[in-house]
Amino acid sequence: MKILVTSGGTSEKIDRVRSITNHSSGKLGKIITETLLKAGHEVCLITTLQAVKPVSHPNLRIIEIKNTADLLQVMKDKVMDYQVLIHSMAVSDYTPVYMAGFDEIESSQDLTEFLDKKNQETKISSKEDVQVLFLKKNPKIISLVKEWNPNIHLIGFKLLVDVSQEHLIQIARESLEKNQADLIVANDLTQISSEQHKAYLVEKNSFQTAMSKHEIADLLLEKIKSYD
Amino acid sequence: MKILVTSGGTSEKIDRVRSITNHSSGKLGKIITETLLKAGHEVCLITTLQAVKPVSHPNLRIIEIKNTADLLQVMKDKVMDYQVLIHSMAVSDYTPVYMAGFDEIESSQDLTEFLDKKNQETKISSKEDVQVLFLKKNPKIISLVKEWNPNIHLIGFKLLVDVSQEHLIQIARESLEKNQADLIVANDLTQISSEQHKAYLVEKNSFQTAMSKHEIADLLLEKIKSYD
């Protein structure tokens, strides 16, 4: 099958020298990609500069992107041509809009004025003791996937931090429904280390538990076979 | 001589999954370190996870740090034991203090209240359309170096974006004086690429021009010989 995988984490520029980055090593996306390739699938991996990459393979194409706007563009182009999307990339929820010193913000009568402003400087001055950064929400790309290709099998990811298993699975089920996904891989940062990677592969009426990145990849491979 | 080099860029956490990062590949710090080692100097390199590292060498010790607080601690410990500091790391000027939805900020009578707040969540919710991040200024570590070791030879760096040569050199001279530095390497992001790296090595009454990372390293090596 033709499978689109995303991995790594996006970065959103504050100015030419600073960014807000979502952490993601890309290790899981690499293992998933390599597992799919070994099973004979064709993979296009959308990833970021800092993420670790799979070893090259005749059935692998890699596209590097930086930020959410790039990702939206590439996904919109590609989603139509693939049968499965495994969307493991950590995507920035917000993009910096405007940064200013505290005094400028405090003396404003109407804070909404800053939402339409843009910094003119290429490197924002660092003279102020306190700075205030306004950020606006990015489009939720996962929610657009089924509009672009209603037939694609959509596998999403949900990362929370230090929550109960029940809560994690509930949030995954909400994402499943909202994004019309086939499956959500739900994981908790406190249960991810170099030795383990606990995750729940959550479907509408059931879930499976994986204890490592390789187990996640193997379970996803099984699942994808059933989509064929 | 015993030389302390810093390279890479620091990251300041917003929450467990997001950080503000200062971009720096670490390439210049790597070349400077390798040049110094080849000339027989002993180097301790303070750098960051993402930065490229020099090849290992019996006279090289590498210390990895993440954020400005780490850097402050390590520098305070180490500066005393070295004769020269080459401080090429891109250090975050600000650290996130508190992030909140726009409504919470807008309805406040006194914005200073947010400067003492801390986010309780481990992953800040992404429901709001606009978020506002308050950041406070970090201590300027370069300005503390001579307090910790009045005898150290201090070589600082100044990176600006798209300014005139005159302005760049003027800003470098201000930094020279303010931080009691021996030399400031002043460079402009628009003149740095994989092919070139233009920089001015600015001293009180003169400056030298380098056109590549290797030229910067060679000129610094010459300069350090004169300190001995």
Automatic annotation (TrEMBL), chains A, B:
One GO MF term: phosphopantothenate--cysteine ligase activity
Ranges where the DNA/pantothenate metabolism flavoprotein C-terminal domain occurs: 2-99, 114-226
Name the record gives this protein: Phosphopantothenate--cysteine ligase
Any matching Pfam family: DFP
InterPro entries: CoaB-like_sf, CoaB_strep, DNA/pantothenate-metab_flavo_C
UniProt KW keywords: Ligase
Record carries keyword Transmembrane helix: no
Keyword Ligase: yes
Originating species: Streptococcus infantis ATCC 700779
Top-level taxonomic group: Bacteria
